[in-house]
Amino acid sequence: MKCYFCRRPLTYFFTKNGYRLFRCSMCGLVQTHLGKPYTQFLKDFYTTGYFTGDDGAGAYTNYAKDKPNIVKNMGVILERIKRIKPTGTLLDAGCAYGYFVELALTNGFDAYGFDPSAFAVSQVPTVLHKRIAQHAVSEVSYKKQSFDVISMLDVFEHLADPVVDLERLHKLLKDDGIIIIATGDTDSLAAKVLKRRWTFYVPPQHLFFFNKKTITQTLDKAGFAPILFFRIGKWLSLSYMLHLAQTTGESRVAAVFEKIIDALHLGSLPLYLPMGDNMVVIARKT
User: Fold this and answer.
1) Keyword Methyltransferase on this protein (predicted)?
2) Would you say residue 194 lies in a domain?
3) Which one of 20, 42, 81, 262 is at 20 to 30 Å from 12 when CA atoms are compared?
């Protein structure tokens, strides 16, 4: 494999979930060798189990039950958006069940969304059906220059060709539009300490792993200029936290605790994790 940016040969990093990860010694970008057609992967992987606790997916325990925590995390990002764009048209790329679309609507935005998962879109409330579509970034067909804001929350690391996808979204933004990306930071202390057990290192769904330098480079290639970087902590249910520790964190102890917590019906207990590994960038169209 060659680096997505530098085109230099990559160095083997480690293998996880049966997939090999490689790292560029020049720019630090980490990428997963998927080894299968991405379009078919989207259809096969992001199904019911991804959102409902399939251990093989290494994703959510129960996306619907975790809605209060997910929305609380999204609210922090929306407040930052409103400081720059108090209102306007908003498109949420990779919107899942439509929670951010719903939140943006209640905050005065004319909000829309899309997601490649047929299952996720099937869970969208009826009131949002006309606002949310099922397709990938490569299939967007919205009118050019029709959005003030585009959001990609915990989505960017899932893309197989992030520069090309950003270029597509660039065309949908108005001339003074902004894009918001929330993803993991490979330069964070958590990533460096946990190494392969870091929760963002979860192939095959996460294909690229960025730091501030490489995400800036990605944005620049697609016609965006970062105007703000910040980090956020996250609210997670105790059940979800233990699920992540067990699946992506590869902890055997977490599996035991998860059974105990379920037996005591404490899984919904919310916990705040200020890990500092969640990087958010707001960039303006150039």
Assistant:
1) yes
2) yes
3) 42
Residue bearing tokens 């040969």: 9
Residue 192 sits in which domain range? Answer: 38-51+62-234+277-285
165: amino acid identity, one letter = D
Structural domains of the chain, count: 1
Q: Which of 276, 278, 115, 286 is nearest to 210 (CA)?
A: 278
- Check: pTM over 0.85? Answer yes or no: yes
The CATH number of whichever domain residue 123 belongs to comes to: 3.40.50.150
Alpha-carbon radius of gyration of the chain: 18
Q: Are 180 and 150 in contact (CB under 8 A)?
A: yes
Residue 1, both tokens: 């494999």
Give the DSSP H/E element, type plus range, for residue 53: none
User: What is the number of alpha carbons within 13 Å of residue 218 lying toward its C-beta?
Assistant: 27
Cα separation, 92 vs 111, whole angstroms: 8
pLDDT < 70 stretches in the chain: none
| 145 within domain boundaries | yes
Whether 165 is covered by a domain: the verdict is yes
User: Is 244 domain-assigned?
Assistant: no
